[in-house]
Amino acid sequence: MYLYVESDWSPIHEAAFNGRLLTLQKLIDQGACVNLNTLDMVSPLHGACTQGHTACAKLLMENGANVNSSTVDGKTALTEACAQGHVTCVPLLLQHGAASLGTSQSSSPIHVAATKGHPECIEPLVQYGADVDQHVDELGTPLQIACSNQHLSTVRKLLQLGANVNSSVSGDSPLHMAARQSSPELTSVLLEHGADLFLRNSEGRQPLDLAPPNSLTERLLKQAGVSPLMQLCRLHIRKAVGNKRLGAICDLQLPTELIEYLLYQSDPRGDLNALKFLNPATSEFES
């Protein structure tokens, strides 16, 4: 039985980091410790996941690698995989018991994925228990981080998974952030998901007050008024269901177009089809 020991970079680290599966298997068969750590507490599993070598990571975990060990700066194999966007490694680690939650920027996988702009890593994290609205001091929520970094696809994914569009950090809501950055794309997506135009930050200012004069963002905020009934229905239904159960909408006996609309998965034509189901008497959208 091999003990957890510390060493410098070793042959098993080298094999895992470079994806040399046969060499890694040979080293394990010869008795190399899969939990051998460097002086910075980097394990072979860290190396494999940093580089996205899924087969090596799987082999290490099958031979007893500690999936939740952390480096001296708090990084786990899961946060390393999320930072690099290695989407095949993320679910594998979660299946082997990787913790989906964290308490700091370095140890919270969903915050790391949001910071780096890897929406494909966020969905499996949420499926395995990560909180889409998890708040980390001085950082806020994943949505706020994604907005501050202008990762539009990540913002879409977080909102699709039920993130609170009106959460605030240091007084600013995501819509305040979008207005400050003069991002019409972010502004449009946030408004579509029910962002509150009239929220005031710690300075008493609304998003419109922060948008540069004569910008497209200012125009969008000025034009945004009462949401259409169809949009209000979607927001109300999603709120009633709750973000922990949004996936259950797929199991409802509803037309596919309507389910996709409720989950923000439809294209504009799909929205029109959904409207037909909400109001069959509307002939304007009939084909």
UniProtKB/TrEMBL annotation:
Q: Where are the ANK repeats?
A: 7-39, 40-72, 73-98, 105-137, 138-170, 170-202
Pathway(s) per entry: Protein modification; protein ubiquitination
Do the record's keywords include Repeat?
Answer: yes
Q: Which CDD domains match?
A: SOCS_ASB_like
Is the Repeat keyword given for this protein? Answer: yes
Task: List each copy of the SOCS box domain by range.
Answer: 215-268
Task: Look up the coiled coil feature and give its residue ranges.
Answer: none
- Tell me its family: Belongs to the ankyrin SOCS box (ASB) family.
Name this polypeptide is given: Ankyrin repeat and SOCS box protein 9-like
Q: Which organism is it from?
A: Pundamilia nyererei
Species lineage, top-down? Answer: Eukaryota, Metazoa, Chordata, Craniata, Vertebrata
